[in-house]
């Protein structure tokens, strides 16, 4: 037992806290209140509004993008606003009649309708009253799910669905929250990394790290009738120490990327994992280690190009 | 402290991990995270420290006053603790919710410091039965600093006041640990103005303090205890629990430990029952971990004292910068 031998308290010197490695702001960068244009004839998109004298003003921090007559400001940071097709990781917060309310880090809770999930037994049938009463057996408060955004209601509420074998209730693992804007929209969000760990990069900023394939609880959400009629038992899932260390290392790498404000996707995650191998897993919790990994990854990404 | 909503699968992963000695962030059961300290967070006190560890953020400030000793202990000075848990630290602290926790923490600190051998309170006595130093330790756990009702000059203050507030700025699972560490640091850098003589006023001898800012004594806090909280997660105890780990725990044991591993107090917090063997195991763990932590803090106190001497004394009219 190491008996707390690594305990350290650093005395902070206020002057050293200044961040000297900030990248320069790109062109067309605006802050809320900046007048984008005074010329009439432009259509306003997201992130802008029309001031009373007719000028177009930015309402968020970000870069101005113009497509013909449409002007939008693509925000940096800020709260998550879902779009159809996004993969999200969420936590069930309420069980209601025929639907579940899901916390997905958005202004409004997401909605998962009973008709939008695959029944655990894999049957394809109309949902009955008994199904409604048995909702808590499928998903209860606190459960984690991965889902896709099916549609957006008028008030901005996001409707989710898990109608694919990739999505559904998540199995043992751990959650880490990062700012939603660090997760870019890509083709795939559920990655089974070569180190035996699966990572779900939810567009909403919730990242699920788990040693199971696709992060999912085995035995739930069958697409076809391939169940042998048994409910999945949590206690039978055994996770080894090596897997746990890998999960912890990925979790700390995500924290490093988030702290350095770098986009998080599978390549940047694997870069940071490789860079972190020189530290022991728990040493990654130190702020200096996080900073170093962030800088190494930033360097590597800028030399190889962000889309590598 | 706030309990967060966790799924069964997360709890299972966490608890099984603790059993295998691999916690969610890779630490072992007896590892602390790294913390940091800021000196002089509050400018109009005799010494103040802001300490951060994980999600917890605490400010402690000490004020030294002239007071009358306790009639039961006429030859000792007193140290008073006061904790303020403001609602900004956690929704549990809304209304009177924070007061219960605050009282508990005060009690734990008082008991831990009460044992003879930790701090020699006799040094705080000026005139037996009549005058003694009263050190008020303020612990702050909110973003907004509450008071410091009186702007007192640190040299001439004859009013007995109880403005000690340990305010909790943000609340993680290791709250009491961080508070006790910050308190020890703060008492370590607390400057007691030296008494240069007695002034006889109507037959009463009133102590006169030195007006030289650099004439002061430090308290000897080498042996004072640090609290190590051990929540029980599953069948094992963990040190420095995160919020998630605390939500999976049933009850905690808080041990006051001195630098040589001696346990000065044990407190049980929350709901839970323990077998004697568990308590013995926890005591052993707290003893080793606590001794380590305490020795690190002793080293930090020395460096802080040097830092303070080197830094320019701040004028009293400066706004408090936190």
Structure report:
- The complex is a heterodimer of chains A (308) and B (322).
- Chain A has helices at residues 129-133, 135-138, 241-259, 266-276, 287-304, and strands at 9-11, 29-30, 35-37, 43-44, 48-50, 56-58, 62-67, 70-75, 87-96, 99-103, 110-113, 144-152, 158-161, 168-169, 174-177, 190-192, 198-201, 206-210.
- Chain A has 308 residues and is of the alpha+beta class.
- The radius of gyration of chain A is 22 Å and the shape is flat.
- Chain A starts with 8 loop residues before the first strand and ends with a helix.
- The model of chain B is unreliable at 142-165 and 314-322 (pLDDT under 50).
- In chain B, α3 (175-188) runs parallel beside α5 (276-310).
- In chain B, the strands form 4 sheets. In chain B, strands 1, 2, 3, 4, 5, 6 and 7 form a 7-stranded mixed β-sheet that branches.
- The relative contact order of chain B is 0.18.
- With 322 residues, chain B is an alpha+beta fold.
- The chains are: A alpha+beta (308), B alpha+beta (322).
- Chains A and B meet through β1 and α3 of A and α1, β1 and α5 of B.
- β1 (9-11) of chain A pairs parallel with β1 (35-39) of chain B, so a sheet runs across the interface.
Q: What is shown here, in short?
A:
The complex is a heterodimer of chains A (308) and B (322). By secondary structure, chain A is of the alpha+beta class.
- Which structural class matches the secondary elements of chain B? alpha+beta
Q: What's the end-to-end separation of chain B, in Å?
A: 24 Å
The residue ranges of chain B in which pLDDT falls below 50 over 5 or more consecutive positions are 142-165, 314-322
Quaternary structure annotation: heterodimer
**What percent of residues of chain A are in strands?**
25-35%
Q: How do the strands line up in the largest sheet of chain A? A: 9-10-11-13-12
Give the tally of β-strands of chain B.
15
What percentage of amino acids of chain B are in beta strands? 25-35%
Q: Work out the helix count of chain A.
A: 5
- Mean pLDDT figure of chain B: 77
Q: Mean pLDDT across all residues of chain A, rounded?
A: 84
Unreliable runs of chain A: none
How many beta strands in the DSSP annotation of chain A?
18
Largest interface: A-B, 46 and 45 residues
Termini distance of chain A? 42 Å
H/E element order of chain A: EEEEEEEEEEEHHEEEEEEEHHH
């Amino acid at each position: 037992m190491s008996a707390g031998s690594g305990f350290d308290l650093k005395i902070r010197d206020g002057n050293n806290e200044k961040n000297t490695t900030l990248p320069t702001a790109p062109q067309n960068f605006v802050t809320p209140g900046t007048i984008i244009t005074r010329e009439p004839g432009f259509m306003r998109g997201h992130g802008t509004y029309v001031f009373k004298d007719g000028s177009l003003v930015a309402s968020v921090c970000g870069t101005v993008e113009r497509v013909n007559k449409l002007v939008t400001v693509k925000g940096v940071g800020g709260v998550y606003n879902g779009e159809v097709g996004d993969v999200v990781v969420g936590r069930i917060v309420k069980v209601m009649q025929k639907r579940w309310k899901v916390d997905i880090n958005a202004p409004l809770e997401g909605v998962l309708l009973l008709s939008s999930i695959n029944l655990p037994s894999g049957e394809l049938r109309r949902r009955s009253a008994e199904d409604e009463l048995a909702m808590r057996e499928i998903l209860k408060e606190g459960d984690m799910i991965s889902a896709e955004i099916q549609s957006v209601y008028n008030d901005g509420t996001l409707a989710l669905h898990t109608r694919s074998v990739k999505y559904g209730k998540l199995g043992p693992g751990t959650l880490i929250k990062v700012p939603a804007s660090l997760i870019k929209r890509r083709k795939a969000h559920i990655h089974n990394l070569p180190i035996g760990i699966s990572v779900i990069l939810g567009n909403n900023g919730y990242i699920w790290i788990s040693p199971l394939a696709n992060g999912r609880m085995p035995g739930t959400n069958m697409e076809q009738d391939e169940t042998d009629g048994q409910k999945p038992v949590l206690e039978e899932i055994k996770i080894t120490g090596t897997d746990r260390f890998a999960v912890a290392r990925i979790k700390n790498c995500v924290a490093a990327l988030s702290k350095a404000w770098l986009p998080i996707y599978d390549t940047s995650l694997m870069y940071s994992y490789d860079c972190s191998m020189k530290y022991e897993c728990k040493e990654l919790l130190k702020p200096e280690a996080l900073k170093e990994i962030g800088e190494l990854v930033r360097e590597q990404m800028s030399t190889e190009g962000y889309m590598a | 402290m706030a309990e967060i909503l966790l799924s069964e699968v997360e709890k299972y992963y966490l608890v099984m991990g603790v059993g295998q000695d691999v916690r969610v962030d890779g630490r072992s059961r007896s590892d602390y995270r790294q913390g940091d300290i800021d000196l002089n967070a509050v400018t109009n006190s005799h010494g103040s420290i802001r300490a951060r560890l994980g999600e917890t953020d605490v400010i402690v400030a000490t004020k030294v006053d002239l007071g009358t000793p306790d009639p039961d202990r006429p030859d000792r000075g007193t140290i008073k603790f006061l904790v303020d848990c403001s609602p900004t630290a956690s929704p549990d602290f809304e209304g009177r919710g924070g007061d219960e926790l605050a009282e508990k923490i005060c009690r734990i600190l008082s008991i831990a410091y009460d044992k003879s051998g930790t701090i020699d309170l006799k040094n705080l006595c000026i005139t037996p039965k009549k005058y003694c130093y009263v050190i008020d330790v303020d612990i702050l756990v909110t973003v907004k600093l509450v008071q410091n009702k009186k702007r007192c000059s640190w040299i001439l203050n004859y009013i007995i006041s109880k403005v000690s507030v340990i305010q909790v700025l943000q609340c993680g699972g290791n709250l009491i640990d961080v508070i006790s560490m910050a308190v020890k640091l703060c008492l370590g850098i607390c400057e007691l103005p030296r008494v240069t003589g007695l002034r006889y006023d109507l037959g009463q001898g009133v102590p006169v303090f030195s007006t030289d800012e650099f004439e002061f004594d430090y308290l000897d806090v080498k042996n004072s205890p640090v609290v190590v909280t051990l929540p029980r997660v599953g069948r094992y105890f963990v040190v420095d629990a995160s919020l998630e780990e605390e939500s999976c725990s049933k009850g905690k044991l808080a041990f006051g430990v001195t630098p040589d591993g001696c346990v000065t107090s044990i407190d049980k917090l929350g709901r839970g029952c323990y077998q004697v063997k568990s308590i013995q195991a926890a005591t052993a763990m707290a003893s080793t971990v606590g001794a380590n932590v305490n020795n690190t803090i002793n080293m930090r106190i020395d460096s802080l004292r040097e830092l303070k001497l080197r830094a320019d004394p701040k004028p009293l009219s400066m706004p408090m910068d936190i």
